[in-house]
């Protein structure tokens, strides 16, 4: 047993994952062949995966987002959307994820004649089939795009599908120059419908963006929130001296932060992982969750994000249980369903692993002990 195997096996909850940011390279190649899409640089899946990651790992969000042109290009038919959603669920199972909220922007999938509703129906079909075959729970979040003008329509679409598996509405895309306030009608529509909002904020723009997302747009969760650290005063040793009003509000209201460690390095939200404010947020008891963002572009999995948290922030087994419960508490499915996962899936899963680790460490010497 290794720490990696333990982290892979324990139940995990993923709240921030882009469907069009997590395709398998092999699938992209096959789908591109089917539609004669010529813009891929290679037909070798390993090289293609590396190419996406290299393209994304440039230290700014604008370049990070460029790869999506190719993934969305091969997701323009009902069949391809079903396939990608289904395979995502299989990948979740392999990664030990028990519940996932995946997201995509329906407006980016209309190039070959699909209507907005068709895209949502197809993705839901793939997710449902995946749930049946792999036993992973899911919720679907629809993204409006910051640089597009149809966010109200997407918000309406999300509400229309609330009984079929759509659980919330998000705003994604380039942050600088596109404040969430510009999409206020979409957010007000969601609020009036008693529905759920998460917004990408504080990734490529500062704390102002997080403030707008919460106080103007009514966000229930924040995607990334990395730059909330700008509202926290630290001393030279990194200890908290004072919270600004916004940080205090986020802390007190238990607003969930969808932290994406590796993606934040690739987009330049932080210069290196050691400097990610996650450690401070966690220590100060913000409601943090750990997420993948874009598994293809960021070459990551939930297991890898957890490994990163072990390596750089010294998290232990109990910390992961706490964070996973945080995530489940913050999911957009009904309260009773969240409790079901917490008490019937997550806690027993951690307990089982705890017993295995204890017996493993008892027979191994001090040097070979694994995470506990
Ligand atoms: O880290 C991110 N920040 C902002 N937008 C993103 C990020 N990752 C992906 N997308 C955007 O969300 C769309 C729907 O899934 C993607 O097409 C991409 O443009
Ligand atoms: Zn994202």
TrEMBL record:
Protein purpose: Catalyzes the hydrolytic deamination of adenosine and 2-deoxyadenosine.
Listed EC numbers: 3.5.4.4
Binding-site positions, Zn(2+): 16, 18, 200, 293
GO molecular function, one term: zinc ion binding
Protein's recorded name: Adenosine deaminase
UniProt superkingdom: Bacteria
Sites marked Important for catalytic activity: 224
Binding site for substrate: 18, 20, 173, 294
GO CC annotations, alphabetized: cytosol
Catalysed transformations (reactions): 2'-deoxyadenosine + H2O + H(+) = 2'-deoxyinosine + NH4(+); adenosine + H2O + H(+) = inosine + NH4(+)
Active-site feature positions: 203
């Amino acid at each position: 047993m290794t720490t990696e195997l333990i982290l892979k096996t324990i139940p995990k909850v993923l709240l921030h994952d882009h469907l069009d940011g997590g395709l398998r390279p092999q699938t992209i190649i096959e789908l591109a062949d089917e539609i004669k899409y010529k813009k891929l640089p290679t037909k070798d899946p390993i090289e293609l995966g590396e190419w996406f990651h290299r393209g994304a790992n440039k230290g700014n969000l604008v370049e990070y987002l460029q790869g999506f042109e190719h993934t969305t290009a091969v997701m323009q038919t009902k069949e391809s959307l079903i396939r990608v959603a289904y395979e995502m669920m299989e990948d979740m199972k392999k990664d030990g994820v028990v519940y996932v909220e995946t997201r995509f922007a329906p407006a980016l999938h209309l190039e070959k004649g699909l209507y907005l509703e068709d895209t949502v129906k197809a993705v839901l079909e793939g997710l449902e089939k995946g749930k049946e075959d792999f036993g992973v729970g899911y919720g679907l979040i629809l993204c409006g795009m910051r640089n597009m003008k149809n966010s109200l329509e997407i918000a309406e679409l999300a509400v229309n599908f609330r009984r079929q598996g759509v659980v919330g509405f998000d705003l994604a895309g380039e942050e600088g120059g596109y404040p969430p306030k510009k999409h206020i009608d979409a957010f007000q529509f969601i609020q009036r419908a008693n529905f759920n909002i998460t917004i990408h904020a504080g990734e490529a723009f500062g704390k102002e963006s997080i403030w707008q997302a919460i106080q103007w747009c009514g966000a229930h969760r924040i995607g990334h929130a990395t730059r909330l650290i700008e509202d926290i005063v630290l001393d030279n040793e990194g200890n908290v001296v004072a919270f600004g009003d916004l940080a205090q509000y986020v802390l007190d209201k238990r607003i969930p932060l969808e932290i994406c460690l590796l993606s934040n390095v690739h987009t330049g939200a932080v210069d290196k992982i050691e400097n990610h404010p996650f450690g401070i947020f966690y220590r100060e008891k913000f409601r943090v969750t750990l997420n993948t963002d874009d598994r293809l572009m960021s070459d990551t999995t939930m297991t890898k994000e957890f490994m990163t948290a072990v390596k750089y922030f010294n998290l232990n087994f109990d910390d992961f249980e706490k964070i996973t419960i945080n995530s489940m508490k913050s999911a957009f499915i009904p309260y009773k369903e969240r409790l079901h996962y917490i008490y019937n899936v997550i806690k027993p899963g951690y307990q089982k692993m705890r017993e295995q680790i204890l017996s493993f460490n008892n027979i191994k010497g001090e040097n070979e002990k694994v995470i506990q």
